[in-house]
């Protein structure tokens, strides 16, 4: 009986210690770990937010910026030392007059506006301020959604848990993209157990990060390098002959269509944008339209329909509290690694531009 009590006590103590047993850089290193967050159905976001919250509380005198967005702000296809927030932090820390010391990058590839709104709700849950927020949108953020893609790509469960009314509002579109909505009482029970109980248990929350730390430790002991966390080839686009053929891919053609976009109140993307802007009222918010490689995308960007859609996107932000910048055609085409992402030099240029925009408010 006494042994059982010690086992229970050990397990309880271990639960509190686990967040401190995993090295911080295994949980967050300049950005979230894409395979451990998005590809795990976003089940590993909470440890990232818990780490950020601890760091913020430990340095209450320092201001910080939160970055949200998709693969462009994430820094794809390069590694985590080449993301735009890295270069922003370098500028911030080199400026003796800046109170900003950290730029936390919570972007994920394929994020939609619905994911950004859900992440804002998670930040509220952890009492992480979004007083200084930068998020990106792209032309495909408002593409016609004839089925795919879902308006909330990764964070459906988080949205349902934090804002059930909004989840219900978009549920029909999610269902059209094969997202399985809870139907029976058992489905609701599983959701409650998983989201409200299991996700609060550190041993469950951190299991993938513990595995990652263990694997990296083994590699270090064996004298082997830690794998690079790049998601692809960050070389310039003009070295990749296949990209011209890729521009004919259905995904690209549909994403950059010249058909008129729906900017009415019935658009779920406009709906989520309004939710985000409402959340950010009275706060320092910068919205960035990240442009495309003008040379590689010439056949798309030259069409009158494309240009008119872009003007309509710009008009969405007229008279708003937020600062809006459109980077279409601003950064040199040679800085792109494909049609929309950048080389490491491109992300340095983007980071510097974002920092200059932030300080010149």
CATH topology: Rossmann fold
Residue-averaged pLDDT:
89
Task: Please provide the count of β strands.
Answer: 5
Structural class, from secondary structure content?
A: alpha/beta
User: What sequence of helices (H) and strands (E) makes up the elements?
Assistant: HHHHEHHEHEHHHHHHHHEHHEH
CATH architecture: 3-Layer(aba) Sandwich
Q: Roughly what percent helix? A: 40-55%
Output the CATH homologous superfamily: SGNH hydrolase
Strand residues, percent:
5-15%
- Inertia-based shape: globular
Q: What is the overall number of helices?
A: 18
Q: Could you state the oligomeric state of the chains shown?
A: single chain
Largest sheet: 5 strands, parallel
N- and C-termini, Cα separation: 65 Å
Strand order of the largest sheet: 2-1-3-4-5
Q: What low-confidence regions span 5 or more consecutive residues with pLDDT below 50?
A: 6-11
The top level CATH class name: Alpha Beta
Tell me the count of domains: 1
Please give a structural write-up:
The structure is a single chain. This protein has 18 helices and five strands. The N and C termini lie far apart (65 Å). The chain is globular. It has 361 residues and is of the alpha/beta class. The protein has helices at residues 2-21, 24-27, 34-37, 45-58, 71-74, 84-94, 113-125, 156-162, 164-176, 185-197, 202-205, 207-221, 243-246, 250-255, 268-279, 298-301, 304-315, 344-359, and strands at 63-68, 100-105, 132-137, 284-289, 323-326. The protein has one domain (20-178, 228-359): Rossmann fold (3-Layer(aba) Sandwich). 49% of the residues lie in helices and 8% in strands. Strands 2-1-3-4-5 form a five-stranded parallel beta sheet. Mean pLDDT is 89; it is low at 6-11.
